[in-house]
Amino acid sequence: MTERIEISRDIAASPEAVYQAISDVTRMGEWSEECHTCAWHEGFSGPELGATFDGHNRNGEHEWISQGKVIEADPGRAFAFECSMFDFHFSTWGYRIEPTETGSRVTEWTEDLRPESVLEMSSQMSGITDRPARNRQTMSGTLERLAAAVEA
Question: Are 131 and 139 in contact (CB under 8 A)?
Answer without folding.
Answer: no
